Amino acid sequence: MARDRRPSKQMITLLEALSAQAPKWCHGYDLMKETGLLSGTLYPLLMRMTEQGFVEAEWREPAQPGRPARHAYRLTADGLALARAVTEDRPLPGLKAFLA
Amino acid sequence: MTVAVSRALVAFAACCIGDHRREWASAMEAELEVAIDDGHPFRFALGCLIATLREIPAHREGRFALVNHAVALGMIIPIAALLISGVLPGFPFLSPGHADVAGSLVGSDGRTPLLNAYDRSALPALAFLVLLLAAAHLAVPWFLLDRDWRRVSIVARLNAAATITLTLFTGILFLDGSYVLLPTAGVAVETLAIVALSRWHSRISAAPLER
Q: What is the pLDDT of residue B94?
């Protein structure tokens, strides 16, 4: 029997932060500050959400010269649908694969 | 100081993360610069390291890296240490009544009355060969962790050749194969481990996207 598992509190926090910024790109450190998640929690979440297609990532040119390019993230259409479902407490599209 | 330690932590995390997550390591390194500007690099770096270590067993390349490190550091280096410690009390191994390492290297057999002068003259060369074998064993983990299979293969063949030479000369000179049990067992175990790791790595390289 399939269980209706809810995403973790940290994942919901991250989904909310990313959906609030959508469709803008967000950097990892800014997301840490915004969500209060530590890097040890944030990056594994981002890695999995990217692999499952909820988040897309791309390299962005640095704002200051001489700095390395930064990885930026935003929700995909699936990720936005998931964020909306979580917010409205509806069945969660595609989350089974993420939680598997 | 904190910045240097943080950079070292993130660099170490990047080394541990594996090829499939190399992009994420670069992302963490880039964000570290922002964390440094923000005044909290250590907390950020420690989190990155924890995230990386948590990810290692979750992917087959991470599992390979764990086993590779375990074999290199937990098996091959101890084999080299065992060989060196085998020479320290005196060549050949497993026989308590022989000269110590200095005695072996200058050709003294200490307390082995059955060895004649001709046999004793081979002791320095054989002891030196064992030390070379130990040194070669110490080179294997380096190449193994680099996944440089060509060099691993070269050193493994040299080790096998040295062990065969050791076995032949020890057998002829001392008429007892038990003296070379230790180096032979060491090379055999090492070779089996290298072959298994090499095959495993080939499978991972052939299908890099599978978990």
A: 42
